[in-house]
Amino acid sequence: MSEEKNGGIKRRDFLKIIGVAGGTAAVASSCSEPVEQIIPYVIPPEGIIPGVPNYYASTCRECPAGCGIIVKNREGRAIKIEGNPENPINSGASCARGQAALQGLYNPDRIRSPLSNFNAEKLQPVGWEAAEKTLTEKIEEVRKKGKTGNIVFLSNNITGTLGNLVDQWMDALGGTHIQYETYPHEPLKEANRISFGIDKIPTYHIEKTEYLLSFGADFIETWLSPVEYTKQFSQMHSVKDKTVGRFVHVEPRASLTASNADEWISIKPGTEAMLALGIANEIVTSGQSPNGGGGLSGLLSRFSSDKVSEMTEVPKETIAQIAKEFSSMQPSLAIGGGVSVTGTNATETLVAINILNYVAGNIGETVDFGDTLSISTADSFQDITSLVSSMENGDIDILLIYDVNPVFTLPKQLNFKDALGKVPFVVSFSSFMDETTELANLILPNNTPIESWGDYSPRESVHGLIQPVMTPVFNTKGTGDVILSVSGQVEELNGKFTQTTFYDYLQTSWKEIWAGAPGAGDFDTFWNDSLEKGGYYKELPPRQVSLSSGVSSIRFTEPEFIGEGDFYFMAYPSYRYYDGRGANKPWLQELPEALTTGVWSSWVEVHPETAKKLGVKLGDFLSIESPQGVIETQVYVYQGIRPDTLSVMIGQGHTSYGRYAKDRGVNPIDILPLTTDVKSGGFAWLSTKVSAAKVNKHEQFVQTQYTTTQHDRDIAQAISLTELEKGVHHEEHDEPDFYPPREYHKYRWGMAIDLQKCVGCGSCVTACYAENNVAFVGKDMVAKRRDMAWIRIERYFEEANNSAGFQTRFLPMLCQQCGNAPCEPVCPVYATYHNPEGLNGMVYNRCVGTRYCANNCTYKVRKFNWFTYKWPEPLNWQLNPDVTVRSKGVMEKCTFCVQRINHAKDIAKDEGRDVSDGEFKVACEQACPAEAIVFGNLEDHESKASQLSHDDRGYHVLAAVNTQPGITYLKKVTQDKA
Amino acid sequence: MSEQNTLTYARVNDDVIRMLDKPTFKWWALFIPTLFFVGFGLFCFIYQVYTGLGVAGYRHPVFWGVYITDFVFWVGIAHSGTLISAILFLFRANFRMSIYRIAEGMTVFAVLTAGLFPIIHLGRPWNFYWLFPYPNQRELWVNFKSPLLWDVFAVSTYLTVSALFFFIGMIPDIAAIRDRVTEVPRKIIYSVLSLGWKGSNWEWLHYSRAYLFFAAFATPLVLSVHSVVSWDFAMSNLPGWHTTIFAPYFVAGAIFSGLGMVITLTVPIRKIFHLEDYITLDNYDGMAKLIMLTSGIVGYAYGIEFFMAWYSGSPAEWGQFYYRATGEYALFYWIMVVCNVIIPLPLWFKSIRRNIKILFIISIFINIGMWFERFNIIVLSLSHGFDPAAWGIYKPSWVEVGITVGSFAWFFMFFLIFLKTLPSVSIAEMKELLPVPRKEAKT
Amino acid sequence: MKKGIKILSVPLLSIFILLGFYFYNAESSDQGPVQPIRFSHKIHVGEDQLPCEYCHSFVEVSPNPGIPSVKKCMGCHQHIVGRDIDYDFDGTTINIKNEISKVREYWANKEPIPWIKVNSQPGYLHFTHKRHIQRGFECAQCHGDVASMDQVYPAYRMNMGFCITCHTENAKDHEELTHLKDCLTCHY
Q: Which of C55, C11, C52 is nearest to C141 (CA)?
């Protein structure tokens, strides 16, 4: 039947899966409910108990970092993703993108069955047999011609088994496998080759450092492994017996990472190398280098701080100060990368940074070449350009595209799109109709990682396993299986692969890993153990490296910029959309960008002075013109950017890729010139100067916070390091109260949030959306301030006496679960009330919607259901059955994940004990990579939460209102002395 | 002097009952559009219930807007009625005689209108009855700590009492009409309503007692009801709401706006039905003086709010009031100040107080000003609370406008019906002002 | 005047009659829904003495008791074909063999049986069977004497009063009572 053919959701199958779970019903309105059916299993799946969740360890593939995840499964549906504590990379945490992977799985715009335009005008649904047959025929056709090297498999950097399979397959077919990454960090590789003779990307140990100096490395957002490095950073930067690590960030723009730095140094774009060498020189000349400059003093002497200061526009004192701190606050570490240093002289810059690390004696200490990242193995930008040219010459007969979207992520000037048109047969394995896939002749939709077997090895020490958590939502098929079954059909490949399913192939290849694993027992134990832990992790000894002599001979050049405009143009990767792949997920679209709090669109950041010059203000439109083209986007006036620089986030501006991504914002990559880093040949991101002009158009800049300062409300408080050392007396204020104090026995749920740790990444926000069925409402509704987020990241720009002149403070604001809650007494029907365990209960079904509670809420954390919000099929499959889905007319707010509390108490009751500290985590706490949020029982004075809430830095927001919140915030630490 | 322009018992009856003649074209011309707008308001409400409150302009953090503004506005209007009829009765202020009936009618209808809004503004209006304490299997009770619940009682009590007072006062007059009308349906209805009033001394004795008691009973309500309404705000902790001045401030404001509305209504009626001899300039002069007083009180409140905000030293408080005068809504704030404090100033001149036209115009401005006062108190406070991250601007939607217009229409609908069915000037009490008719001595 | 009353009486009367019907229907609804298969609990529980947990096997470990899979049905009905006799199923005569053959049909087509839910609770209520069974309650206390029902029907009107009364009566001590009467225990 047609439904089968176009692969519509096979409702019945779904019901077979969900068994008796009613799923989540909406708050019943006055009208009566229709007849409910209960659909039992035909054959009950092993180990699934309806109503009891199962957890499966797997690996996240939303970016190359490859964090370990644990997917929660209820009645056969994946409903929540959380970090895998076993995994050494993210050890339990996750980022917003990882959380949102579910909305990739359940995306309503997924390709629901194979499509082919074979003897048809446009793409049409076909069965899998037919689709595979088409591919087989095409391959044989090409093979018949006897030519070689004209089948190309273009994929992202798929390390691990699938990668090997593709390699073997391509070898057998005489084709080539090109691994394309949007941000392959080639200069980093090349720089390490030049400096240490290793063309690899090491792992860093930020947590071990006292002093971190970053040249444009946005490690909190996208750089290499954001979750891991955020975690390490928060360890290094948090308060340990009254001291904190120091972090200085060098970038033309105050990115989210820079906003978390103690010092943001705004530098002239492309001159980071000079600064690094200047600092190194300073260290050596002032005799602070442990290895006396290691024979580089000659090279360095050319970079006197006067000269450097003049070139970089960084004051001399700053250079001297950094030099002093960098060498004195040991161990220290300088890292570099990110688009801001990826100009035409990127490699040189990174070599300079290596030199700086070397003279400060950091190599081997905080940089570890023993365990290198597999992104090193991605193919170079040259390979891509040469591929495109051979496509243009019509040398490519079949192009198979897997999990990349080059039409979107490559600069227009490269003409990938046109070149694609010259390829007679294009196959896409994408599960989404993105810009590249819509040009394909045959689409074989791949399962999402949540539906398929696989593995991924982000670094030498980690082999992450990917296991199917649920049966495919649509009529899709794992690419590995497709390759195997097609190979089975191609004559000359008969017998090439003994395995018929990718699962077998995977196990076979894991036998090798098993062989290499000491004392792993027999394979099945090893396999099951790995499945349980989410993969196989091994310890690798750090590798000692030494600076190669080649360094001293290297020439440090000025960066080149294409275009005559007066502004440097920075297209920076978004921590919400990465290279654009996140844009089709409503959670990420609705997650406010930390600094602008902007949502659902893109914008250009303009310095106030520049804005005055251009005569634009917030919300006006600016046309940005480079030699390669023009983009038009909204202005956000931001003091955290150089007056001579404009920056636009990458990820929006899709012309396809589903309803949530399409026609939203602009894609800055379109106007980037095709320039490369001279030494590594990698793509130079920051290499154009643009001109900007006001366009006669204005729109409301849709954001979730319209203020930038605290208006003396002292909401996000800070304490200076000196004060901290002096030790502040924490007054246990016990004000006289008309009412007797509340009595709690056993439990009083509370929370402590450390503002020194919080980096504002927003993963807690997305985690909350996922856990609590919080509705996403879309741009128009957010414009009306009707976003439903239960937890918001408030960001304030505070005046500060640092070189930037301001300091950014983030404060996660959620229901404070007040002990003396203003919302409670005003509700006429007790729909909100104080529960014996200190929670502000919110009973949706009792709520009549007077909204008085929200009016009286001091923190304005209550959200009202203005409408009954809808989750388009199958996004609603993700809804958490343990949480009521709210309908129109009721109030809602953070519940401290009461469903998790109740679950934990349920378990405890089974075992006849009380809930112990840290036994369970609430969603936001669980996701937080910085470990800023700690939830626990305040009645248990041993609990971490209750310890922290009596910390010296502890305070209650707006304590004067005497709401007696259950959440204690720990003041941020400002470093008043160098 | 001719029979025409001196008032006699007979003429009072004639004049008042003449008002109850068959509706003229003019009346219908007013009544039909009124019905239309009521219908439109109803449509808006149904649409809102069906789609969700989102069709109104509400947003975080402004959870209350035009509806509550209307509620407070109408409750305010409702006040002067009882004030004029009860309090002034106790004070034996004779200028009330002619207008108190209209004022009372106005009260009842205004409360009827006000009572709608707490339900209209609910997120789930179909559950409104949960606000009443009634035994149920759920063993759930209402929260007597909540000012909203006090509202429920305050408003319902006020409606009951003012309605009864309205009716009691009318009994003799209805009897008078009963004696005049002949055609069947009206005869029956009026006979029933007159409760068999004969007008015997014995009846008059008890009647006047009862009336006195009711007056005494209604008087405290005038103060209590609007105090309770003001506590909807004062009991919260929101800057701009959390202040002790609210009760007197609101009561004064209520009387102020109520008198404004009385003038707005009586002036045209006086003209149309030629009641110049009943509603005299002295009556207006008296009301104008009360307006002067209450306007002064309101003006003082505006001032002292600012002072206290500054004096409190709380950034939130001061921020709120600074925002009112200078923020996005500054225009509304100054409209309020001008309409309620500046424009009534001319009333200090007797000539103005006795100039019906100017009085009428001023009264209109007072109505506008008082509506905005409520809007400012509610919306501005909400949009600019403690946490700057949650500040936001509210704009009413067409649905809210529709329902507001509908509420005015609803009010006037009742009023028009009242004019044509019940004596809008108290026959009995007018007569009290007149010399008792006696036979001429024969010569 | 009489005329007036006449005019009024017609609509009034009809309203009363309609209301009467409404309440009549409301009361007469404990027949239980007609299921795709006339499955008799009376036979299975009453005559064959199957324990409830045999089919609703998750009742002790999960919030929801579970509905037996078709496989489970076939576990017995592989062998038990059923007597080819008529049976009075709540007044409707059915042939046992036919009904059982329906099960085999579903099994043959590998299709689930679309049972209709008898006792259901709204989504804003999170009831857990596990807790109540572990506390030692009998199924019958809420579901009535299923053993005597051919077609299962709601034995009790399971509204909030039903829960609260039971919670109040059975609370061990005051602490437990506060817990059992706390909204968040069931509504979240």
A: C52
Q: Give the pLDDT confidence of C38-77 residue by residue, as tens digits.
A: 999 999 999 999 999 999 989 999 998 888 989 889 989 9
**Per DSSP, what are the bridge partners of residue A462?**
A459, A537
A883 contacts in chain C (CB < 8 Å):
188
ipTM at complex level: 0.90
Task: Give dist(CA B266, CA B41) in Å, integer.
Answer: 26
* Amino acid A738: pLDDT: 81
In 3-state terms, what secondary structure has residue A495? coil
Question: Distance between CA C122 and CA A33 in Å, rounded?
Answer: 9
Please name the amino acid found at residue C146. Answer: V
Q: Which residues of B touch A707 (CB under 8 A)?
A: 388-389, 391
In angstroms, what separates the C-alpha of A723 from chain B's closest C-alpha?
Answer: 25
The one-letter code for the residue type at A594 is A
Q: What backbone phi and psi angles, to 5 degrees, belong to A553?
A: -90, -5
Contacts of A706 in chain B (CB under 8 A): 391-392
DSSP assignment string, A73-135: EETTEEEEEEE-TT-TTTTT---HHHHHHHHHHT-TTB--S-EE-TTSSS-EE--HHHHHHHH
Which chain A residue has the Cα nearest residue B323? A711
Assign A584 to helix, strand or coil. Answer: coil
Nearest CB to A52 within list C61, C134, C183: C61
Over 70: is that where the pLDDT of A267 sits? yes
Measured distance CA(B424)–CA(A113) in Å, rounded: 77
Phi, psi of A624 (to 5 degrees): -110, 120
**Is pLDDT above 90 for A360?**
no
Give the mutation candidate from B58, B71, B229, B386 for the A interface (greatest A CB count, under 10 A). B386
Q: Quote the CA–CA distance of A567 and A688 in Å, as a whole number.
A: 8
CB contact under 8 A, C124 and A910: no
In whole angstroms, give the CA distance from residue B415 to residue B38: 13
A751-A752-A755-A759 Cα dihedral, nearest 10 degrees: -50
Count Cβ atoms below 10 Å from residue A270 Cβ, excluding itself. Answer: 27
Indicate if the pLDDT at residue A288 is higher than 50.
Answer: yes
C69 inside 8 A of chain A by CB: yes
Which residues of chain A are within 8 Å of residue B236 when distances are taken between CB atoms? Answer: 822, 826, 852, 855-856
**Averaged pLDDT for residues B162-178:** 88
pLDDT tens column, A570-589: 999 999 999 999 999 999 99
List the single residue in B with minimal CA-CA distance to A858: B386
A145: tokens are 């011609």
Q: Structure pTM?
A: 0.92
Please say whether the beta carbons of B408 and B37 come within 8 A. yes
Q: Select from B124, B136, B137 the residue whose CB has the most chain C CBs within 10 Å, as the one to mutate to test that interface.
A: B137
Average pLDDT over residues C131-153: 91
Q: Do A37 and C116 touch (CB under 8 A)?
A: yes
Q: CB contact, 8 Å: C140 with chain A?
A: no
A400, A402, A407, A413 alpha-carbon torsion, rounded to 10°: -70
Question: Residue A110's beta-bridge partner residues?
Answer: A432
Q: Does the pLDDT value for residue B344 go beyond 70?
A: yes
Instruction: Please report residues of A whose CB lies closer than 8 A to that of B123.
Output: 847-851, 864-865, 888-891
User: How confident is residue B6, by pLDDT bands cut at 50, 70 and 90?
Assistant: low
What DSSP line would sit under A860-929, residue for residue? ---EE-SS-----TTGGGGS-TTSPBP-TT-EE---SSHHHHHHHHHHHHHTTSPPPTTSS--HHHHH-T
Residues 853-892 of A with CB under 8 A from B: 854-856, 858-860, 863-868, 888-891
Q: How confident is the model over A6-15, as a mean pLDDT? A: 38
Asked if A440 and A433 count as a contact pair (C-beta separation under 8 A), the reply is no
Using the Cβ of B183 and the Cβ atoms of chain C, whether some distance falls under 8 Å is answered with: no
